[in-house]
């Protein structure tokens, strides 16, 4: 993967909190129902915490009941990329920030229309800005 945004891991460790670093750079998952944006309902945009790329809009956010922020689409198709993830013996599709390569969460085919997708994203990977 060729990233537009280049930083070394020392830069990420300096910029990000330990939780953000573990999620974005090491692929960790934050606890369900105990994160910043799972029950967040303001209008605005969600950006990558590591590189500030626009990722998601509140217009596509929905309550999935999973305890993580969920979206039925990305802000732009070129904002994210996908990677097969077979960790924990489960076949899933990982969602990655295309700009910097940070782990964001996973996407599942059980979301609402019009896409039928559920982007299940870690709050720790996101910053929010009101419109």
Biggest sheet overview: 6 strands, antiparallel
SSE ordering: HHEEEEEEEEE
Strand order of the largest sheet: 3-4-8-7-6-5
Amount of helix = 10-25%
Please identify, by name, the CATH architecture: Beta Complex
Note the beta-strand portion.
25-35%
Describe the structure.
The chain has 131 residues and is mainly β. It has a single domain, classed as Peptide methionine sulfoxide reductase (Metal Binding Protein, Guanine Nucleotide Exchange Factor, Chain A, Beta Complex). Helices cover 11% and strands 31% of the residues. The protein has two helices and nine strands, in the order ααβββββββββ. The strands form two sheets. It has a six-stranded antiparallel beta sheet, with no helix packed on it. Strands 2-1-9 form a three-stranded antiparallel beta sheet, with no helix packed on it. A hairpin with a 5-residue loop joins strand 1 and strand 2. The longest helix has 7 residues. It is globular and about 40 Å long. The model has no long low-confidence stretch (mean pLDDT 93).
Structural topology:
Blueprint (H helix, E strand, L loop, with lengths): L8 H7 L2 H7 L19 E5 L5 E4 L3 E2 L7 E2 L8 E6 L6 E6 L5 E6 L9 E4 L4 E5 L1
Antiparallel strand pairs: 1-2, 1-9, 3-4, 4-8, 5-6, 6-7, 7-8
């Amino acid at each position: 993967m060729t990233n537009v945004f280049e930083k070394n891991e020392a830069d990420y460790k300096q910029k990000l909190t330990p939780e953000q670093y573990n999620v974005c750079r090491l692929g960790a998952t934050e606890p369900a129902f105990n994160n910043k944006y799972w029950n967040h309902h303001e209008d605005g945009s969600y950006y990558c915490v590591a590189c500030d790329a626009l990722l998601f809009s509140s217009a596509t956010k929905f309550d999935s009941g999973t305890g993580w922020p969920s979206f039925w689409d990305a802000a732009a198709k070129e904002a994210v990329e996908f990677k097969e993830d077979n960790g924990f013996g489960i076949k899933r599709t990982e969602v990655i920030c295309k700009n910097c390569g940070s782990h964001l969460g996973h996407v599942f085919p059980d979301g609402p229309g019009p896409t039928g997708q559920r982007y299940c994203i870690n709050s720790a990977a996101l910053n929010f800005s009101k419109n």
